[in-house]
Design brief:
The protein is 5% helix and 66% strand. By secondary structure, the chain is mainly beta. The protein has a single domain, classed as monomeric porin ompg (Porin, Beta Barrel). Strand 8 and strand 9 form a beta hairpin. The N terminus is likely disordered.
């Protein structure tokens, strides 16, 4: 089942270029390789309704007989979306990860987009035996450097809990340059898991493409 979920996520990649809004990023870090993409598209040019797919893959380095401190991760989210206004969007669909498997999920998203700045916040809940609550936030700042280049920076945060404990959080920072719809630079991700929430660091180099 895990392999099938990964294949479904990969098959979504070729249609990213046809989507109205999307981005894919790959980072080579000192602890793990990190891939993520987000794609959103209306059913037609005038429709308030559409779909969204989000995927993350983390593959830890394993050299020789050494074992990674943490397990590899796969996350897939697929939603039907409805625009309530220019800023607010309602979404509902299916969430998958390695720990909890498949769960129904619903949330609301607020987005503010300006020429040099973007902010998105998405509270969400997963419907399961024990309901999980999540808040996702991302902000980008991209002021021009000259006629061809822009400074690129992004902060991406996520925290997931249930009524019993903290489950999973991360803080992701990217800094670099942007040309047209291509970005590259340095990145760091802080990961926290479970009750103790001990911080694990991954630093490296990223490349990113907007569609």
């Amino acid at each position: 089942m895990r392999f099938l979920t990964l294949i479904v996520g990969i098959l979504c990649i070729p249609i990213i270029s046809k989507a109205q809004a999307g981005a894919a990023e790959f980072m080579v870090g000192d602890k793990y390789l990190h891939y993520q993409h987000s794609v959103a598209m209306p059913f037609n040019q005038t429709s308030r309704f559409g779909w969204q797919h989000i995927a993350t893959l983390i593959k830890h380095h394993k050299f020789g007989n050494a074992k990674a401190d943490l397990k590899d991760e796969l996350m897939n989210q697929a939603y039907l979306t409805a625009n309530l206004s220019k800023a607010f969007q309602l979404k509902g669909g299916v969430f998958y990860n390695d720990v909890g498997g498949y769960r129904l999920s619903t949330g609301i998203q607020f987005a503010a987009i300006k020429p040099n700045w973007m902010f998105v916040i998405n509270p969400r809940l997963d419907l399961d035996k024990v309901t999980a609550y999540e808040v996702f936030m991302v902000s980008e700042f991209t002021p021009p450097i000259n006629d061809r280049l822009r400074f690129y920076s992004r902060i991406q945060l996520m925290s997931n809990i249930n009524r019993n404990q903290h489950l999973r959080s991360y803080q992701l920072i990217r800094v670099g340059i942007s040309k047209d719809k291509f970005q590259m630079g340095a990145g760091v991700t802080l990961d926290e898991y479970g009750k103790d929430g001990r911080v694990h660091y991954n630093t490296g180099f990223f490349v990113r493409k907007e569609f």
